[in-house]
Amino acid sequence: MNAARPGILLVEDDPQIQSFLRATLATEGYRVVQSSTARRGVIDAATHKPDMAIVDLGLPDFDGVEAIRRIREWSSMPILVLSARSHERSKVEALDAGADDYLTKPFGIGELLARVRAGLRHATRAPHGSSVLAWDGVRIDLEGRTASRDAKPLRLTAIEYKVLAALARRPGSVVTHRQLLVDVWGPAHAEDTQYLRVYMKQLREKLERDPARPVRLVTEIGVGYRLALDD
Amino acid sequence: MQVVRLHGYAWALGATAVATLAGLAMRPRFDLVNVAMAYVPGVAFVALRQARGPAIAAALFAVVAFDWTFVPPEGTFTVDDVQYLFTFGVLIVLALLISRLTDDIRRQSDERACLAVAAEAERIRGTLLASISHDLRTPLAVLTGASSSLAERGDAMDPAERATIARDIFDRAREMSDHVDKVLDMTRLDAGGMELRREWVEVPELLSALRRQWAPALAHHHVVVDVPPDLPLVRADAALLAKALGNLLENVARHTPPGTIVRLTARQSGSEVILGVEDRASGLREDDLERIFAKFDHRTPEQSTAGLGLGLAICRAIVKLHGGRTWAEGLDGGGTVFHVALPVPPAPPMPVEHEEA
Prior knowledge:
A: 231 residues; Rossmann fold; B: 357 residues; Heat Shock Protein 90; 10 helices
């Protein structure tokens, strides 16, 4: 990775959206590689080895979701999805396929840059190295299965650890209901969203300062959950 | 008559009985052919008022009753004289003819009703076009003017001025995009093209996420979430339900002054969970409480904050799609509460955790 100038792959077919995204990303010091088709995007991802990809879901040749699936076969770089309103459903598919975050068109550039920064930040933080989560006086060791809050030991159940670990594997990213359910309970429970409601509620009661206004275990309505570690 | 809503066939029987009694009264003085005439008004009456089936039945009943009661040999279905077959034929033709005519008239009036529905659709389309042209063209005018002044004279402006104009373009474009979304949503809901992707939804969690999502728009309102701890889960398309409730919040943000207290509530009532969006503003007139759910309702058309008038109609349509109900109610001491009632399904199987299994 080029530490000085992170590279961003932009897979987007609309020339005007391309143009303002490229211009803005360049002013932020990013190196931008552009592809107008999904096929090209998959190839460029392999040849240019960017640090992050921004993928539009309405591409002319094949589905952006398919492009994400192919990129994910070998790359773990953060992928941000741009979805039009008419692609509400494919947004979840894209996340299921391994995208980390999404932004619905139309969006302001401020929102986009914030997502890009967050994506790159999480990527540089060794994702598999740290099994310790810490925030607001809460400390959780996922491997050692110990937790504390304000230096007092905290009891989490085995499943609670698993749910947290599933979220912490990709901190800051949106983890879909399906991904969480399959990860923790197995494919037979992929639709059992009630399981998540129960466990997220328990986890929030144990880990959030104000469980009714969670800031760490964030709900993405109709999509899934996100573990927000940054302030 | 005490039998008003009875079946058409009962009418046919009744008419035959009445005609037979009349015939019996006439019999001593009238020719048999004229006695047969006693059945004509009954058959005509049934054919006029009932469907074709009862009309034909009335004619047949009349034939049978006439034959049995009056045609010699009386008390049998034997017919001595072929001329009575003609009488029977006339009765049946009469029944068919009248019921056919009545059908035609009924069909025409149905067509007229269809035309009225089409006219209503046309009116809504007209309002839609009018509102699109007003609500979209105004921001478009801002976009065109402001962006061209940036492109052509931007260099000569001071940075703060430039930023203000660019911000205006952004805000108006957002607003327009929001309008277009609403029109598309309404159109899809009307066309029945919205497919629900249901999941188990925890209402307090949804309300909390909604409050977070709407915090910027309600930055100057005091938003309070007030929910009991043990509400049952509901089965809903969370994204759509959030949109429905979001439209209620948008409505509050738009129509109540800064500083207004807004309460998001939920409670179980029988087999429903009832959500409430409650504001302590000036409230609505009693007769507006239902009207505001209509499409393109603008309480104050002149007001620039009026919006498209689709938000509440979309909310109602989404909730209806979930088998729920929506209504608004005035609050004592001023204010309005919008209710969304959702059915509670049987509870789903819950996860069981065996300690360190």
